[in-house]
Amino acid sequence: MTPITTTAELTAFCNQLKGQPFVAVDTEFMRETTYWPKLCLIQAAAPNAEAVIDPLADGIDLSPFLEILRDETILKVFHAARQDVEIFNNLQAMPGPMFDTQVAGMAAGFGEQIAYDALVRTMLKIEIDKSSRFTDWSRRPLSDSQLSYALADVTHLAKLFPMLKAKLEAEGRLVWVTDEMANLTNPATYDVSPDNAWKRLKPRRHTAKYLAVFKAVAAWRERTAQTRDQPRGRILKDEAIDEIATQCPTDAAAVDRMRSVPKGFSGSRFGPEMLEAVKEALADPEANAPVIERAKPQHNPAAGAVVELLKVLLKARAEDAGVASKLIATVADLEQIANDDNAKTPALAGWRREAFGEDALRVKRGELALVLDGARVRVVEVRRAPRQAAE
Questions:
Q1: Per-residue model confidence as pLDDT tens digits over 113-147
Q2: Is the pTM for the entire model greater than 0.85?
Q3: Cis peptide before 194, with omega less than 30 degrees from 0?
Q4: Residues 91 and 67 both lie in one domain
Q5: Bridge partners, residue 380, by sequence
């Protein structure tokens, strides 16, 4: 098998993709030792065309394929798309419109985050050869077996997509997947600006001093990781950011006393830079601290018990619908509903409200009950006795 290695070959292949109803896409990349993912292969398959593209080939210009990704008339099909989409977003080519077969598998009743090989096995009755699974995709040349393994990811995907789509259409659930794609194709999902790096973490305190340092150190780490092209954790662990924000060190000796900071960190090139970020944050904590919307205090003393009831209801409704419960609601959604009938949560909007949210509110009002029927939980209407007329 010969991969596409020139711009001319890529242009010719992309001309074949134009006008196709969909194209299945996958990537092979490396990022174990880098901040930015290193794109090593792109695989693409449409109903009448398929190829492996080598983005590491000398002089190749990926623009023709990036234009296909941006083409709104062609549906882009991925499986577990997030990391692939992140790579293309970095290349200013957010795929759209898009269909993720992992999300679709959840909606079709194949379980939580079904793996690609399991979906292929279930729907196509094919066992995928995993012998090239741990290939170093950055090495050249790649063998025929490695290239065939990579291409199979999209050739199988192109076959199972129409089947999966038809199943969802027949069950009236295609819109469920469409709704989920909005988050996957939102550029904000892949924001790596240093000033927003703190949002990836979980601040444990809410004082201005803590938050100002927390944000500053997270931003410093993000800039450093990006500049040096190293994983964030190799610069500084997440737990160290929390400890630094708690202790607010201003000299090397204070840094050396911290348990989560690597030994010798203060004397490295990173130490003075990090301390400078801390000092800048402490110069005006009120101005430098990010604004965090605090969760409203729980006014419902029974909220904890309500959440437990809603967990059982969610499991029952998910089983009834033959869909993964994670697709319908999260524990955070349940907590919000337990405390607020008008909570701004996806579980109380659109198809999720119909599948679960309305029943959740009815459970809170005592209109529905959960009954154990053997090994299965049933949801039943509560029959209220009529009030007797006053004598």
A1: 899 999 999 999 999 888 888 899 999 999 999 99
A2: yes
A3: no
A4: yes
A5: 369
